[in-house]
Amino acid sequence: MSAHIYLSQFLLQVLLIVLSAQGVCVCAIDGQRHVDKDIGVIVPDQIRNQTTPSSWNDQLRDASSHRLLPADGTQSSAGKKCLPFFPYSFGGLDEMSVVDSVALLQSTGHAGIAVRAGNDADRKRLAQYYDVSQAQGDKFTVFATFMSHKFKNEGTSIGNHKATINAMAGREGVLWIYFRDDDGKISPTDLEKMVRKIVRYAKKKGVSVALYPHVNNIYDNALDGIKLVEKIDRINFGIVLNLNHELLAGKFSELAQTVERIKHKLFGVNISGSKWPLDNSSTSAMIRSSILALKDNEFDMEMFLSLIKNNGYSGPIGFLNHKLEDPNDYLPDNMKIWNDLCSKVQLYEAD
Questions:
Q1: pLDDT score at 333
Q2: Running DSSP on this structure, what letter comes out for residue 71?
């Protein structure tokens, strides 16, 4: 596809977003913060104003200019391997045995998995994934573990984090951590002290840790999160870039700035399909519209992947499959689309 067609499609997308914000379509943009009582999520006002400043057009074209290079198969990909692509351990995979889930992932070409590790039951399943990984060698990898911390339930104890770090010691993977303070009682100093303890303990065990920005958590976007990462400033502590959480935080117009700002500490990148603009009819609808199979994606994924490539990222790419129901359905389609994106953006492993 030519550069002119790519540019035309992008500008048309921008026009539709602007028209939507100006009232040409019916949009629930009312300048208020909204709480969905069913899921308890507060969505900031910025999400409901998804217009794109004209200055962003030039910035975006410059930052993702790789898309203007031959990306339609004319550049040879012979002998090259796409960056590893992997889902999380939910989305229907959690209803299968570890052996069966690994078999499905391998049959569809996925390189590994990110495993929930927030409690003892999770860690028992993690151990099974590690056993398979050890037996399979480089054919299957546990790329990450992830765990949420709710201060309302757990206070500032890091015992649960220590248990997961112990389970990861001597194994592969990065520990993704995120923090929720529903009562607003945790000060920045309290959080920093706690994270420092986690990172220090992980360093002793040879484990890397990454702050995981997440909607309705203390850090919901990477531009804010990188400040804590840099303040703690440890070699084993970085940040994860989650496309859907950046969109939910209203950071679309700052994606290029975000990737440039965090690239020196970028420990992981995750994508998911998304409606675009997001469905702002309700909070729950908005969140659902940001976590879709790739076959249902409307967002300019080539642009986003070009941004991370042009900023030097060459690690594995995760796929957020939260609430997706049938992995036998979405995994094969995802891999086909991922391979196509890989070819177009030239997201290959280093020789």
A1: 97
A2: -
What is the model's pLDDT at position 32?
A: 32
Summarize the chain as % helix, strand, coil (round to 5): 50, 15, 35
Residue 268 sits at φ, ψ, to 5 deg, of 180, 155
Q: Would you list the DSSP string of 179-223? A: EE-TT----HHHHHHHHHHHHHHHHHHT-EEEE---TTSS--SHH
Contact assessment for residue 210 and residue 176, using Cβ atoms and an 8 Å cutoff? yes
What are the counts of helices (DSSP H) followed by strands (DSSP E) for the chain?
Answer: 13, 10
CA distance to 29, 59, 213, 246, 335, per residue, from 253 (Å):
17, 10, 17, 10, 28
Using only C-alpha atoms, the chain has a radius of gyration, in whole angstroms, of: 20
Q: 277 in helix, strand or coil?
A: coil
Residue 67 has pLDDT above 70, yes or no: no
Mapped onto helix, strand or coil, the DSSP state of residue 317 is: strand
What does the H/E/C string look like for 99-117? HHHHHHHHHCCCCEEEEEC
- Positive or negative CA dihedral for 233, 237, 240, 246? negative
Percent residues over pLDDT 70 in the chain: 78
Distance (Å) of CA 72 to CA 134, 152, 175, 184, 342: 37, 51, 36, 50, 11
Q: How many CB atoms lie within 10 A of CB 115?
A: 29
Whether the CB-CB separation of 310 and 68 falls below 8 Å is answered with no
- Choose among 49, 52, 56: nearest CA to 23: 49
| pLDDT mean across residues, the chain | 84
Judge whether 291 and 87 are in contact, CB under 8 Å. Answer: no
- Which secondary structure element, helix H or strand E, spans residue 331, and what is its range? helix 327-345
Q: Write the DSSP symbol of residue 263.
A: G
How would DSSP label each residue in 113-149? EEEE-SSHHHHHHHHHHHHHHHHHGGGSEEEEEEEEE
C-alpha span between 120 and 107 (Å, rounded): 29
Is 71 a residue whose pLDDT tops 60? no
Q: What distance lies between CA 43 and its chain's CA centroid?
A: 18
